[in-house]
Amino acid sequence: MEISRKRVLTLGPAALLVLALVGAGIAYLVLTSGAELKYKTQAALREALPATAAAELQSRGVTLRSPLKCGDLPGWTKHRLRAACTGTTTDAKDVRVLGSGDSGNGKAYYTILVGGRPVVQNAPCLGADCAHESG
Hints:
Elements: H1 5-32, H2 42-59, E1 69-72, E2 80-88, E3 94-102, E4 107-114, E5 117-123, H3 129-134
Antiparallel strand pairs: 1-2, 2-3, 3-4, 4-5
């Protein structure tokens, strides 16, 4: 059986289109199957950090004198989130909370220092957010 030139000219581009669509589908799955950040924007991270950090500290027996005050850290971008909070415990120890997230790999890291000593180091979640991590 001989394949005509007309048939090659019609099937060739169709086969290339199918291959391109399959490739695009695979690329989409690879790019979207990764982890996603819980807080997708700098504002969302900054606003959530005081409550999640306070809940984490409370679960560890640390009581705050007043709510944590949070702000943006220098160097944050749309894809690399960075925020920090400060406060004081009821027994007058300084509290420093650092939160970061990378939308490229979907990973977040949180560190809490109380009196200069780490209470939490590079944790993927804080407070009630951790209940969703294990489930």
